[in-house]
Design brief:
With about 300 residues, the protein is an all-alpha fold. It is built from 14 helices and no strands.
Length: about 300
């Protein structure tokens, strides 16, 4: 297990460095002057040149990128915001708890509703409940989060007045953002649970358990569900990583002060250190969630661990 863990951790290094290179290159060649955006169009040329010198913007590309990698990954210094002058890590950590809560509640809603729906659909295959649920799941997978969020605001805030259109402090403020972000995950978890359960309940050992006279409840929840959960666990972990990094549009629609909204505002202001740090945050979150899922998968399935002995 230790060898497998070390192997997966080492595989993360080139991925993260590659992501850093891509985003750094794209921002480097993007038209526009971040010094002018930060100081204003009427700023004197001397102030603009001093700003570029202070932030190292007048250095060649390779020097800037090498300095960014060295300070960021070895010293934990990813630069300072051009706008607020605060360290990038401080800006991201101030917003991260809100994004974490949003993603956690969204994936929790997807698990609590998706797994039972998937089990019922598999047990009652081709029933009316199965057909309706699969149609709704297909719509949930195809529907963009921002569009669903706008529809919910129009219905529950504008027309009915039941829920506030923005914020993420009280329970009423959390309802629409959580449901909006969890829509796709709920649909995916439901479909994956159903398909995995259908494969398991047709296995020979399930027929043997029925032949022995065991109750249907015991067959489903003691024999079928644990074996069907292996791919579902993988999907849940990947969805959590996706939601942590993919709540940008949801946070923007509902004016939630999370990492996603911070990145949108930084892109508008050409605050490159925040944008670079935000993209790296998304990449790191996704990589570490995949690592956690792989380790859990290896712990559940001994065949994975056996490959690295």
């Amino acid at each position: 297990m230790l060898r497998y863990t070390l192997h997966r951790i080492l595989m993360l290094i080139p991925v993260v460095v590659g992501v850093a290179l891509i985003i750094f290159t794209l921002l480097y060649i993007t038209p526009g002057d971040p010094a002018r955006m930060a100081l204003g169009e009427d700023a004197p040329a001397e102030a603009v040149e001093q700003f570029r010198k202070n932030y190292g913007l007048d250095d060649p590309f390779l020097i800037q990128f090498s300095r960014y990698i060295y300070k960021g990954f070895l010293q934990g210094d990813f630069g300072r915001s051009y706008v607020t002058k605060n360290p990038v890590t401080v800006e991201l950590m101030n917003r991260f708890p809100i994004t974490l809560r949003l993603a956690f509640y969204a994936v929790l809603l997807g698990v609590v509703m998706g797994i039972p729906f998937g089990i019922i659909c598999a047990v009652k295959q081709y029933s009316l409940f199965d057909s309706v649920t699969m149609v709704l799941a297909l719509i949930g997978v195809a529907m963009p989060n921002f569009w669903l969020g706008i529809l919910l605001i129009l219905l529950f805030s504008v027309h009915l007045g039941w829920l506030p259109p923005s914020g993420f402090t009280t329970f009423n403020e959390m309802v629409m953002p959580v449901f909006t972000l969890s829509g796709g995950s709920l649909a995916i978890i439901t479909r994956m649970t159903r398909s995995s359960m259908l494969e398991v309940i047709k296995a020979d050992y399930i027929r043997t358990a029925r032949a022995k006279g065991q109750s249907e409840f015991k067959i489903i929840f003691r024999h079928a569900l644990p074996n069907a959960m292996i791919p579902v666990i993988t999907i849940i972990g990947m969805q959590f990583g996706t939601l942590l990094g993919g709540g940008i549009l949801t946070e923007s629609v509902f004016s939630i002060p999370g990492v996603g909204r911070l990145m949108v505002e930084s892109i508008k202001m050409r605050d490159y250190p925040i944008v670079q740090g935000g993209v790296l945050y998304i990449a790191l979150v996704y990589c570490f969630m995949n690592l956690a899922v792989d380790l859990l998968y290896a712990w559940v399935d001994p065949r994975i661990k056996a490959q690295y002995r």
